[in-house]
């Protein structure tokens, strides 16, 4: 098992100038490792839709590296997006799924079918160009430079320890930037010119 | 009296006028002629989705990337897309035009299909403005919808009240 922050630190080392689209617990962990928050896009407003937002961005900007930091509970809400992504096959899209087996933000209830399904297997059969599963940080760190720079779409399932929270929504700390502001700022930044990620 | 038709070419002309780049789409039973015409035209990229809720979020990503997407879904898909429209449309000021197939709607007699009856109450509840398009005579409303979406930074719906004609 990996710790989410340790695993995402490895992802950050490979982001180059890419945009990172995050959701749910992944957003919190990513905030602790990101060196380029202007290119981070936290998507909390529509559950399970981070992969879809990232796909739109990757289609719009094919030269831009786009990384999704997703969760198992989130992608289970939008499994069809795996087929939609594979069909459009954006070459620089990297889909990280933090698999912790639970809905960590609602107190740690198990996701349906925990331990029975294989996220990387589902993505592979959906048509992703490559898929990987890592349970060990050293192994992931060793392979990351290759995995996160090969022809996409690539899905990387990281088996992580759950970081469970059960704080009522109105008592949770707000995100560093509101999604509406992050989207507007990123759109303007990209309009000024895309540096390939 | 000649039949009033809604031609795919007329819709396409409006899309081009508004510099649409991408069509995020889940086809429905009323839109097969439209689909064929768009594929033949090839000037806009089709993004087919598996379920309509994806479409709003994909459109949001396209917009961030500087493109001009349009979503084409049926009224049933509008219902399915509720949380995406809220979170990735209304809450993020997305100036998106959604072309909604108004399944089962009629101005003649009683509209029985619940896929039609709930559309306008839901759009009104969400504060989403909408324009009805039934024939070529109405298609300029599509440009009005684009202008409305840009001006208000808000999703706007175009309700397609009839099936597309063959040509």
Plain-language structure description:
The complex is a heterodimer of chains A (197) and B (167). Chain A has helices at residues 4-13, 24-31, 50-60, 72-76, 80-88, 119-126, 137-147, 179-191, and strands at 19-22, 40-42, 66-71, 93-99, 102-103, 109-110, 130-134, 154-159. In chain A, the strands form two sheets. A six-stranded parallel beta sheet of chain A has the order 2-1-3-4-8-7, sandwiched between helices. A two-stranded antiparallel sheet of chain A has the order 5-6. Chain A is globular, with a radius of gyration of 15 Å. Chain A contains eight helices and eight strands, in the order H-E-H-E-H-E-H-H-E-E-E-H-E-H-E-H. The mean pLDDT of chain A is 93. Chain B is of the alpha/beta class. Chain B has helices spanning 8-17, 32-41, 52-64, 75-80, 82-90, 114-117, 119-126, 140-152, and strands spanning 22-25, 45-48, 69-74, 97-101, 130-133, 156-160. Chain B has a six-stranded parallel beta sheet with strand order 2-1-3-4-6-5, sandwiched between helices. In chain B, helix 8 (140-152) links the parallel strand 5 (130-133) and strand 6 (156-160). In chain B, helix 3 (52-64) runs parallel beside helix 5. Chain B is globular. Chain B starts with 7 loop residues before the first helix and ends in a 7-residue tail after the last strand. The relative contact order of chain B is 0.20. The interface between A and B is medium-sized, with 34 and 31 residues.
Main pleated sheet of chain B? 6 strands, parallel
Provide the gyration radius of chain B in Å: 15 Å
- The rough form of chain B would be described as globular
String of helices and strands of chain A: HEHEHEHHEEEHEHEH
Low-confidence stretches of chain B: none
The chain-level structural class of chain B is alpha/beta
Biggest interface, and residues per chain?
A-B, 34 and 31 residues
